[in-house]
Amino acid sequence: MNIENQPKPAPFPSSFWSANTIELFERAAYYAMASFVVLYLGQLGFGDYWPSFINSSVLWGLVYFLPILSGTISDRIGFKKALLIAFVLVSLGYIGMGYPIWIGGASLADTIEPEVTVTLSTVIPICLGVLFIGIGGSFVKPCIAGTVQKTAGTRRALGFAIFYMVINIGSLVGRFVSYKVRNTEGFDTSAIFLVSMVAAVAAFLLVWFFYKDPDIEMGNTEQKPRRSVGEILLGIPKVLTNLRFTVFIIVTSGFYFIYNQVYNLLPLYTKKTIELEPAMDIVTAANPFVIVTCQLLITRVFGKLPPVKSIFIGMLIIGASMLVNIIPLYTSGGVSEAVEITSKLALPLGTMFIMLTVAIIAFGELFKSAKLYEYIASFAPKGQEGLFQGYSNLPMAIGSIVGGPVGAWIFNGVMCKGSTKLDNGLLQLDPGQATTGWVILASCGFASAIGMFIYNWWITKHSANSA
User: Which of 11, 24, 353, 443 is deepest in the core (most CB within 10 A)?
Assistant: First the structure.
């Protein structure tokens, strides 16, 4: 067969590329501020525990739980209208987050104190900001992912590979722009929300001027049955009565419990015990950097692994990532010991290990993420594929909702127990207590891996008995 005579695949339609460009700006907006939210709220006076609850349980919980509803609403009103509404909401949300500093007269403390000292005039715009970002953000992923699915055709695997790459490029861009702006003279940490707002407004303009609803562009006139909110809620018991699916969701949520700590416990640990002004945006950039540079290699070498085995490896990796932070606790200079990288750059040893942790977590994510949606698709009875895929974000939602308060307790109640406050405002941790905290976190990852192993044994035995 003459390969040269084979027809070339049709190019992706314009809505595919506009959707991915919009996703790049949306992710840039979100990750420009994600690494600093708990620190920002702590410095505003929300105390030791409320920042983690607001950021993880509320904000992340909304972003990853609400797509069950917002995805269906988007189908009803059209993706373009849904995206326009979404970016109006998130833009207002970023304004709300910055309002206490920009307009409200609040100021950021140098350190995060245990007591809650924040006033109502700060609490109200922050809570509104979190709600707007969470609700608006929940519309974006189903619309963009839905556009990729509808426009990629027979090249769906390639389409989603591009989509996944764009997410991480946007994440990198947002972090580095945020770092540059907040370190410019005249700006402070609240500048991260200015960067986020500008990126969200840019995404809104892209939707307004360039994005086309994929059904219109692809000429899809088929009328699919539309479910009401009541029907969606009634569908929850139908999905959750599938025992195999429910157990899988619970087990995999352990992975996201630890992943959530990248934006919850790790910033708190770095800020309160290693350095007073950590560049968390740059530190956490290790995650998307590893994914962008190593995704192709991991896919080529391990892409043929069965989904459960690949997810199991990802869980082992993310559990092990926590343990590396024990090492600097027992060095002679401790976590704050400066290590010279170049003649002009030195980093605390603890910060370097936090960055290593984030990079290792990225490898765990590469093993897990590529297989999660593929495996969830195998649960759905014929005709219910969309219903089950709508719940694919539940593990992240559960891990985030639980991860906020539990992560805050592990840090404040376990790691910081018996600590001493130094003259520079940092906490000197008791190495034994800090080690206990890291071991608890690692154990959560290993427990999830063991749970996945048992789960695989259970379904394999069940399938054999059913044969």
Answer: 24
For 7, residues 6+ apart whose C-beta sits below 8 A from its C-beta are none
Residues 131, 96: Cα–Cα separation, whole Å: 10
Q: What is the mean pLDDT of residues 223-238?
A: 64
pLDDT of 5: 55
Q: Give the Cα separation of 432 and 321 in Å (integer).
A: 18
Strand partners, 338: 348
Give the model confidence (pLDDT) of 18-61 as tens digits.
999 999 999 999 999 999 999 999 999 999 999 999 999 999 99
Amino acid found at 225: P
Confidence (pLDDT) at 295: 86
Please state, in angstroms and rounded to a whole number, the distance separating the CA atoms of residues 356 and 166.
Answer: 23
**What single string gives the DSSP state of each residue in 436-461?**
HHHHHHHHHHHHHHHHHHHHHHHHHH
Token pair in block for residue 254: 């352990």
**Any alpha helices (H) in 324-430, and if so which ranges?**
349-377, 385-389, 394-409
Classify residue 457 as exposed, middle or buried by CB count within 10 Å of its CB (0-12, 13-18, 19+).
exposed
Tally of CB atoms within 10 A around 109: 12
Nearest residue to 44 via CA among 181, 182, 188, 179:
188
Global pTM?
0.91
- Tell me which DSSP letter residue 6 carries: S
Residue type, 351: T
> Are the CB atoms for 285 and 278 separated by under 8 Å?
no
